[in-house]
Amino acid sequence: MTSEPFLFIDDQPISTGQILNYLQATRKLDAFIGDIVRQFVIERELQAQENAGVNPAVVEQAVVDFRLNNQLTDPNQFQQWLAENGLTYEAFHNQIAGSFRLKKLKEDVTAAKLPEYFIERKVFLDRVVLSRIIVDDKELAEELKTQLQEGAAFEQLAREYSLTDDRIMNGMVGPVSRGTMPDLLRAEMDLAKPGDVVGPIGMEGRWGLFRVEAILSASLDDPQIKQSLEDEIFEQWLADRMQTIPIRLQVPD
């Protein structure tokens, strides 16, 4: 028994079995199946979700907003855009409604876990804006620290002595996640305040002086941080669900 062609390429029929063989040959089969299982789990959870209905007025307003933001208010232009993207209006409308349902599912999954997860991740979310002077010699670093205490300009010393490329920016490094800092530097940052110069600190055979320009403390009130953490929790939850599902691949003859 032969399978029906899945698609045609240059008028040549390509069966499902051929497609799976192509994916396997290019080492993309696992990712392909993973995407299918992922969507299967999401759809099943959405179907089981209580009060999963979306207010039609909210969906319609989202459609209007999309058309306004993308300059598709003209009906002919909108129809052309739908055609170019292989969509009917009904399919586009369903995509918008589905995004609201998915958002509700994410909120339900992550709400209870979010505060504790934020605390676990906070060390990586907090950032410190730093400038630095990096030299090879500890004695030189200590001498530069003395000069700074006596009123020398950090920017000038960075340009003159620092070995790193950021010396051309007066030693400005920019925001650095506390969680990615070496332990010695992070310990100093925990006690520092804007304007403080810490060091010399030895790292990888070099010595550094670091000036704290600003401390950017993470907060769940930040919409971007909240969204990012929700996405991380949801993806982990989704991965756990996917691992519990038995999968059997049957390739057509």
TrEMBL record:
The lineage of its organism: Bacteria, Bacillati, Cyanobacteriota, Cyanophyceae, Leptolyngbyales. Residues 125-214 form the PpiC domain. The keyword DNA repair does not apply. Its EC number is 5.2.1.8. Keywords: Isomerase, Rotamase, Signal. It comes from Leptolyngbya sp. NK1-12. It holds the Pfam family Rotamase. This is peptidylprolyl isomerase. PANTHER family: FOLDASE PROTEIN PRSA (PTHR47245:SF1), PEPTIDYLPROLYL ISOMERASE (PTHR47245). The keyword Isomerase applies. It catalyses: [protein]-peptidylproline (omega=180) = [protein]-peptidylproline (omega=0). One of its GO terms (molecular function) is peptidyl-prolyl cis-trans isomerase activity. It comes from the Bacteria. It is an enzyme of class 5 (isomerase).
